[in-house]
Structure formats: structure tokens, C-alpha cells
């Protein structure tokens, strides 16, 4: 009887300690808003398809690039997906592409423009039907040819976003190696990467990429934008802890992976809530506090480059203000109006 009481007492203590630990993880904030050295104004943002789809007034493009430059944006990823089943790009305007690039070179010459290409894989139940079969060599070859055509137009490289890609997928690596060869060493190969996790999940192999797979991908590409959102986490502190861990882990995992690979950590600015994204949890403030906390633990992790906002068309003035305050350490910049054209 005495032994039973001891066992029950130990179980109660363990339950209390477990509950306290869960409460701590879920409700104790992570990070701080103190000054930090991690922003080098080498940040990124995803842009809408419309910028490459149809003609825009020069003044509108000038305003866009002047604003992005003032916000410390170095890389822009204008939407140009999905590839269709034949491996061809969707409707776009070559004339607008050239005007877009020319405006950027004149207004913000430091900004790099990498078209955002890719799409959804076949075989997954989603609202939109997938069109990419990574195991299809012919489709991969046509995708590579289309990307080569884009860099021939004058883009600074390619940003690849294929979802979902399971951890360890060798066909995705084959596509990246072919793109690396096709676009050449003087153009950037950038990707959007599935959120990192400590292990692959047997029941959901597309949910996490392990550090080992990050390292393999990093051996091929120049830049990895970590999609550190759509985590399904229920509280802000828990999300901050995850982003802190993800930032620290990926920057470490890519040390030595490739001669030039750099990490961008994705920051969500979109609002609709659902099972995987809670707008009050996955905010710019919470993401940035997590990023800074993770980087403080590794001194910036030699592979870290900046943050990537998803996306420009969902980032309102309040979210730009959060970005400026918590990441760049100041008030939102004043953007001068574009000079009139002769």
C-alpha cells in the first residue's frame, strides 16, 4: 500500500511538472526587442504575378522599387507560376519583364530580381490541382529551358518554389542541379524551403525538412528562403520558440554546405486564419522576435543573410511598421515620390 502511494505521488509530481513545462513553453515569451546586429538590409519579399503579367505605368514601378529599397529589400521574387503539365510558364509579358528590369536598374540598382517559378506537385489533395511531376525527366528539362530563357532576358537568377517536397527527395535535387548548370555561375539559384524539423515525420514526410536535407540542398543553391510559417502552433510564445530554433538550426546546418549558400528566414504577413496559420500567432513581430533570439545564440550564424516577407501584397502599413521597429530598429522610412519622366 505504501509503495502504491509513492508511485501515485510520483505520477502526480510528474504530471504537475509536465503541465508546468507545457505552460512555460506555450505562454512564456521568447526574445526581446533590444537592438541587434543581424539586419544588413539584405532582405527579400515575394511579389504578385501582375508585375510580370501585364504592362504597368513606369511611375508605378518606380514607386514600388523606391519603397522596397527604402525598406532595406535586396531581393524581389515576382510571381511567375505555376508551370503547366508540359513544363511551360503561365501567361506573361516579355515586354513588361524588360520594362520591370530596366526600371529596377535605374531606380534601385542594388535590388536583385529573381522570378518566382515552380508550382504544386501532382498527387496531393489541394484546392488547386498540381501540375509538377519531379520524376518526369522531360518536364524537368522543359522547366530548365524556360528558366534559362528568363535569365537570358536579364534577370539576376531564379527563385524556385515547388510544394510539397518531401524530405530527402532526390528528383528535386536533380532539378536544382540541372538549373544550376543551365543558369550559370554568375546568376543566383534561390529556393523556398519547407520548414525545418529535427526529424522527418513518417506520416507527413512533406511537413519538415531535416538539417541533413537542408545541407544537401545547400550544396547546390545560392540562397534558401525558409518558409517558417503555416506551423499550426497555437500560441505566440510557442511560435517564437519554433522560429528561434529554426533560425539557429538552418544557419548552422548550412555551414560548409556550399561555397556561397545563404539563408533567408520567411516572415508571414498574410491574415486569413486556418488550421495551419493563426493570424494572431504567426505575425511579423513574433517571427522577428524568434529570429533574433535564434541568431543571438549563434552570433548570426555565418550563413544568415536576412528575412523574407511573405508577401508584399499582404503587408499593410502596420506590418511594415512592425518590420521596421523589430528588424531594422527604426521608424518606417519616408519614400520620396518618383521623379517625373522627360
Rg estimate, integer Å? 22 Å
SSE class: alpha/beta
CATH class: Alpha Beta
Query: What is the 3D shape?
Result: globular
The CATH homologous superfamily is called: Glycosidases
Low-confidence runs = 10-27
Number of strands: 9
In DSSP terms (H or I, runs of 4 or more residues), the helix count works out at 10
Helix content range of the residues, please? 40-55%
| Strand adjacency order, main sheet | 3-2-1-9-8-7-6-5-4
CATH fold topology: TIM Barrel
Please give the largest β-sheet. Answer: 9 strands, parallel
Counting structural domains, the number is 1
As a percent range, the share of strand residues is 5-15%
What is the H-and-E element order? HEHHEHEEHEHEHEHEHEH
Summarize the entry for a quick read.
The protein is α/β, with parallel strands linked by helices and 342 residues long.
Describe the overall structure.
By secondary structure, the chain is an alpha/beta fold. It has one domain: TIM Barrel (Alpha-Beta Barrel). The protein has helices spanning 2-27, 50-53, 58-70, 94-107, 137-152, 170-183, 211-218, 236-253, 284-296, 317-328; strands spanning 43-47, 73-78, 112-113, 116-120, 157-163, 188-193, 223-226, 262-268, 304-310. It has a nine-stranded parallel beta sheet with strand order 3-2-1-9-8-7-6-5-4. Helix 5 (137-152) links the parallel strand 4 and strand 5. Helix 5 (137-152) packs parallel to helix 6 (170-183) and helix 8 (236-253) packs across helix 9. 42% of the residues are buried.
Amino acid at each position: 500500500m505504501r509503495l502504491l502511494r509513492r508511485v501515485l505521488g510520483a505520477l502526480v509530481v510528474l504530471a504537475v511538472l509536465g503541465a508546468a513545462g507545457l505552460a512555460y513553453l506555450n505562454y512564456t515569451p521568447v526574445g526581446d526587442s533590444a537592438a541587434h546586429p543581424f539586419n544588413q538590409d539584405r532582405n527579400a519579399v515575394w511579389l504578385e504575378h501582375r508585375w510580370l503579367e501585364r504592362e504597368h505605368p513606369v511611375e508605378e514601378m518606380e514607386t514600388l522599387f523606391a519603397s522596397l529599397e527604402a525598406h532595406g529589400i535586396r531581393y524581389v521574387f515576382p510571381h511567375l507560376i505555376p508551370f503547366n503539365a508540359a513544363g511551360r510558364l503561365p501567361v506573361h509579358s516579355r515586354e513588361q519583364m524588360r520594362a520591370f528590369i530596366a526600371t529596377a536598374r535605374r531606380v534601385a540598382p542594388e535590388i536583385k530580381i529573381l522570378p518566382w517559378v515552380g508550382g504544386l506537385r501532382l498527387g496531393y489533395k489541394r484546392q488547386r490541382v498540381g501540375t509538377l511531376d519531379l520524376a518526369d525527366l522531360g518536364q524537368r528539362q522543359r522547366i530548365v529551358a524556360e528558366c534559362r530563357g528568363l535569365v537570358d532576358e536579364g534577370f539576376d537568377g531564379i527563385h524556385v518554389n515547388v510544394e510539397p517536397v518531401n524530405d530527402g527527395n532526390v528528383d528535386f535535387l536533380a532539378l536544382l542541379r540541372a538549373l544550376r548548370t543551365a543558369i550559370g555561375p554568375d546568376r543566383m539559384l534561390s529556393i523556398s524551403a519547407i520548414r525545418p524539423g529535427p526529424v522527418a515525420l513518417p506520416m507527413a514526410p512533406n511537413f519538415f525538412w531535416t538539417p541533413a536535407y537542408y545541407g544537401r540542398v545547400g550544396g547546390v543553391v545560392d540562397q534558401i528562403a525558409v518558409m517558417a510559417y503555416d506551423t499550426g502552433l497555437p500560441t505566440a510564445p510557442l511560435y517564437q520558440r519554433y522560429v528561434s530554433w529554426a533560425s539557429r538550426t538552418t544557419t548552422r546546418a548550412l555551414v560548409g554546405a556550399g561555397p556561397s549558400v545563404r539563408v533567408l528566414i520567411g516572415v508571414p504577413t498574410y491574415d486569413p486564419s486556418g488550421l495551419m496559420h493563426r493570424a494572431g500567432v504567426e505575425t511579423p513581430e513574433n517571427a522577428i522576435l524568434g529570429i533574433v533570439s535564434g541568431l543571438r545564440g549563434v552570433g548570426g550564424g555565418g550563413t544568415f543573410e536576412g528575412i523574407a516577407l511573405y508577401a508584399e501584397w499582404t503587408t499593410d502599413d502596420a506590418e511594415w511598421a512592425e518590420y521596421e521597429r523589430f528588424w531594422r530598429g527604426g521608424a518606417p522610412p519616408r519614400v520620396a515620390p518618383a521623379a517625373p519622366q522627360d
